[in-house]
Amino acid sequence: MTSLTLVRRIKARPSIVFDALTTPEGIACWWGPDGGPVLVAETDPQVGGRFRIRFRMLDGSEHESSGEYLEVVKPERLSMSWRWTGGLEDPGESLVEIRIRAIVEGSELTFTHSRLRDEETRRSHEQGWNGALNKLERHFLQANEAAGQT
């Protein structure tokens, strides 16, 4: 088993970032590794609640993940089980943990995906999550620019 950790600084308050991670509207703005759309985003962000997200990549392939919320502490922490529906990417269940802390610029998000099967799976998820978190950063930059706050 292996894991990956990514850190991002996001120009938004922790509560706003948390909502982008847990609401269907927020998830639709950033989920997926490239510019393809989110097709389904169902969330019940409470301990024992479930989520299901389906997205289409620019190459036309569709991917779906689901899991259960294990810890929900708004706006600081989120932990959930993770499984690819259909098991093509990785047949096992893994763990996603997100920590958000306030910083001068807005929020520092620490994203950890652990219990990954092997190094190849870790590399694939690292590429995917980097793409998604880059989109999350851009989403807030664009929102700030639209509001006149750069």
Topology at a glance:
Blueprint: E1 2-10, H1 14-22, H2 24-28, E2 38-43, E3 50-56, E4 62-73, E5 77-84, E6 94-103, E7 106-116, H3 119-146
Antiparallel strand pairs: 1-7, 2-3, 3-4, 4-5, 5-6, 6-7
Number of H/I helices:
3
Count of DSSP strands = 7
Distance between the termini: 41 Å
Poorly predicted ranges (pLDDT <50, ≥5 residues)? none
Helix content: 25-40%
* Proportion in β-strands: 35-45%
Biggest sheet record? 7 strands, antiparallel
Characterise this structure:
- By secondary structure, the chain is of the alpha+beta class.
- The protein is 28% helix and 42% strand.
- The chain contains 3 helices and 7 strands; from the N terminus they run E-H-H-E-E-E-E-E-E-H.
- It has a 7-stranded antiparallel beta sheet with strand order 1-7-6-5-4-3-2.
Pick out its properties.
single chain; 150 residues; alpha+beta; seven-stranded antiparallel sheet; 7 strands; globular
What does this entry show, briefly?
By secondary structure, this protein is an alpha+beta fold.
